[in-house]
Design a protein that fits this description.
262 residues; mainly alpha; three-stranded mixed sheet; 10 helices; 3 strands; 73% helix
């Protein structure tokens, strides 16, 4: 097992080139639906940044001890990016829901509501250093993609008049089949990590002081590390590579190409 991730973290920077290519490609598209185009562009720009300056929120882990490797700035950008691309995925369901099935419309908007709740959880985890909120955040992501998968399965079985756009439902189902089992393992590791955390000392400190200290810590503290444990091991490496550099950007770009006017 590889114990040092230096090479992997530097290779991750190639993902910035991929995202910039996709970003420039979307800028060249004229007349596309802004509800498709803008969320994708936000994702590409933020993912490129995260590939160049990777961080891990738990214990303020960074690759570079740089002003750009800020937990606070990265999380702020990621908040906009995650809400944007989940809105895009939910918008795809509504576009392909040509029969206007009401429960799919509701479920698609619940995806957006859940990603907002997950943002609150991850900010709470960062500012209070309460690791159990990372578990709740990721549990929300499990719900989001379970909803996406269930809705896609129903649409692919019941709707015929989709033409070439039906491939987007196939992609949703394929991702769900891979992601949901992986996320189950991820949730198990997060729960174990949360149980190991000692919160007895922090419990006596007023919440306002803890939030202020957490905000200062997120803005200033950087712990440069390259060991596998600090970056979450194989699960962490898989997550960073798929989310920032490969699978999610490519999937999003394909959505734009399918839904953009010819």
């Amino acid at each position: 097992m590889v114990r040092d991730y230096s090479v992997f973290l530097w290779l991750l920077k190639l993902g910035a080139l991929v995202n910039l290519y996709f970003l420039l490609g979307t800028l060249a598209i004229a007349g596309a639906d802004p509800l498709v185009l803008v969320p994708a562009q936000i994702l590409f720009a933020v993912s490129a940044y995260r590939c160049l300056f990777p961080v891990r929120y738990e214990h303020n882990i960074v690759l570079h001890d740089s002003i750009f490797s800020s937990i606070f700035v990265t999380r702020l950008l990621a908040t906009f990016s995650e809400v944007a691309y989940i809105f895009l995925f939910s918008h795809v369901l509504r576009v392909l829901n040509v029969d206007h099935v009401e429960w799919i419309i509701v479920l698609s908007w619940l995806m957006v509501g859940q990603v907002a709740i997950s943002q609150c959880c991850v900010w709470t985890a960062i500012l209070l250093e309460e690791f159990q909120y990372y578990f709740y955040e990721e549990l929300g992501w499990f719900f989001i993609f379970a909803a996406n998968t269930i809705s896609s399965l129903y649409l692919i079985l019941t709707v015929d008049a989709l033409g070439g756009r039906k491939v987007l439902l196939v992609l949703n189902l394929s991702f769900g089949a891979l992601y949901l089992p992986w996320q189950s393992l991820h949730l198990r590791s997060l729960r174990a990590e949360a149980r190991e955390q000692d919160r007895s000392a922090a419990s006596s400190i007023p919440i306002s002081i803890r939030l202020a200290d957490g905000l200062k810590r997120a803005m200033q503290v950087k712990n440069p590390r390259t060991d596998s444990a600090s970056w979450g091991g194989t699960i962490g490496l898989t997550w960073m590579t798929a989310y920032w550099a490969t699978l999610i950007p490519m999937w999003t770009y394909y959505i734009v190409r399918v839904l953009a006017p010819r």
